[in-house]
Amino acid sequence: MAVAFVLCGCTQRKEAKPKAEYRAIDTIPMLIMQVQKCSRLYTAEYNIHKIVTYDDIVRLKGSVLKRDFNVKLPLGDRKIAIPMDATLKAYIDFEGFSERNIERRGNKITVILPDPKVALTSSKVDHKNTKEYVSFTRSHFTDAEMASFEQQGRASIIASIPRLGIIETARDNAARVLIPMIKQMGYAESDITIAFRKDFTERDISVLLDNSTVER
Amino acid sequence: MKKLLNNISKARIVAVAVIAVAVLAAFFWVGHTAHNSTVSIGSDKKIDITPEQIRSIKAIGQWEFLSVTDEELVDTVRRGIFSDDHLVRIYYGTLRFGVDLGQAKPGWIVASGDSVTVTLPPISLLDHDFIDEARTKSFFESGRWSAADREALYRRAYSQMLSHGFTEANIKSAENNADAQFRNMLRAMGFENIVVRFAKQ
After folding, report:
1. In this predicted model, what pLDDT tens digit does every residue of B176-189 receive, in sequence order?
2. Would you call B147 an interface residue with chain A, using a CB distance cutoff of 8 Å?
3. Range in A24-28, A62-66, B105-109, B112-116 the model is least confident about
């Protein structure tokens, strides 16, 4: 396993909106990179869509004559809806694959696979279709606020993984990929068994999530 | 007559005293009520996330041999007359190199006794969408930026990650690892003489 860090800085100038009156330029492109060798067989891919909505309503609250009141103030609303898509992939990690994963009895072969894992391989925010409504008395949503909402949407997608059934799909598809491979090695299809370490419950799935998926 | 006048002035004094007491009582009551009253302006903030909608499920057979995890600090500056506007974001992404077994040609594994020859499809980028944009961190913002500006920053981060990660050296490294991993797996399955090669692009 080789891990290399490359750090470099360079300067580039580029216009973001050539037709506008202003000029947008890059000043600090920067790169931090990590290279890692691995052996992962991806067998299932799920594309997930989600909309994150956020309401911010200004209210006049208080109590007079021992009576509480909570009144929505006019022209004080801020709302945003952010559509986003994410790709989840389930894989079998072959990094520790060895003779211990193979059982042969005569013409029969059993391949015992390691635990399937799930990674969130990409996510994309639909900027074009993001809808924002801000009253004139309120300030617009900041970039930090929007990034925070998107991160919460991402966390929600990761939390939903146990309900999606991707692990079961990954196990089924692993057999569909590996059996034709082993057949070409000279085994009859009826003699090939693809087995997994054990059956998984929802509780187990939390430990099967890829670290890169749950990283913040 | 004098007695009558005396009675009237006594009645006035009593009335004035009653009014004074009532005014004082009202004053203290209003003061007490105002002390116990609260008025404030606050905001109700509510985030709501719709249930996950599965757009598609695909059975794939992609074997990854090298991953390049990258983070890019990308910024844009808008020059103004009195001040400049800045937007700085940190993007995260992972370029995955490997082979797509769906592209393997028929007969890509040929076995005979304890010998096997494997012809893998060429190493390629397994995901063309490799940025995890929802993980993006906002580092600094001044001025107002549109969705088009953010999309332009994303595109710039994408091309930077691609130019830094999608290199001949990384492709070669993925090939070497694929060779080693397949040899290891085939040896575990009992083959002694193993040849691993890659199909041409």
Report:
1. 999 999 999 999 88
2. yes
3. A24-28
The pair of three-digit structure tokens given for residue B74, joined into one six-digit string:
């990308």
Cα A160 to Cα A25, A90, A153, distances in angstroms: 39, 14, 11
Q: Which residue has the tokens 């072959």?
A: A94
Q: From chain B, pick out residues whose CB is under 8 angstroms from the CB of A2.
A: 173
Rounded CA gap, A130 and A146, in Å? 10
Q: Which residue has the higher pLDDT, B125 or A70?
A: B125
A 152-191: CB under 8 A from B: 152-154, 156-157, 160, 163-164, 169, 173, 176-177, 181-182, 184-186
A45 in contact with B, Cβ within 8 Å: yes
Flag whether residue A28 sits within 8 Å of chain B, measured between CB atoms. Answer: yes
Residues of B in contact with A27 (CB under 8 A): 75, 77
**Contact of A46 with B54, CB cutoff 8 Å:** yes
pLDDT of residue A206: 60
A170, two tokens:
């990954």
Structure confidence by residue, pLDDT tens digits, B146-163: 999 999 999 999 999 999
> Which amino acid, one-letter code, is at A88?
L
| Beta-strand pair B38-49/A131-134 | unpaired
Q: Is 0.85 exceeded by the ipTM?
A: no
Q: Could you say which DSSP state residue A139 is in? A: P
Q: What are the C-alpha distances in Å from B186 to residues A9, B177, B199?
A: 43, 14, 19
- Residue with more model confidence, B200 or A205: B200
Contacts of B108 (CB under 8 A, 6+ apart): A184, B118, B119, B120, B121, B199
Considering only alpha carbons, which residue of chain A is nearest residue B48?
A: A53
Q: Which residue has the tokens 């993984």?
A: A161
Residues forming a β-bridge with B106? none
**Residue B19 distance to chain A (closest CA, Å):** 24
Length of chain B: 201
Give the start-end residues of each E strand in B50-172.
Answer: 53-78, 85-100, 109-112, 115-120, 124-125, 137-142
Q: What rounded mean pLDDT belongs to chain B?
A: 90
Are the beta carbons of B53 and A48 closer than 8 angstroms?
Answer: yes
Asked if the C-beta of A15 comes within 8 angstroms of chain B's C-beta atoms, the answer is no
* pLDDT (tens digit per residue) in B80-130: 888 899 999 999 999 999 999 999 999 899 999 899 999 999 999 999 999
Alpha-carbon distance B17 to nearest alpha carbon in chain A (angstroms): 28
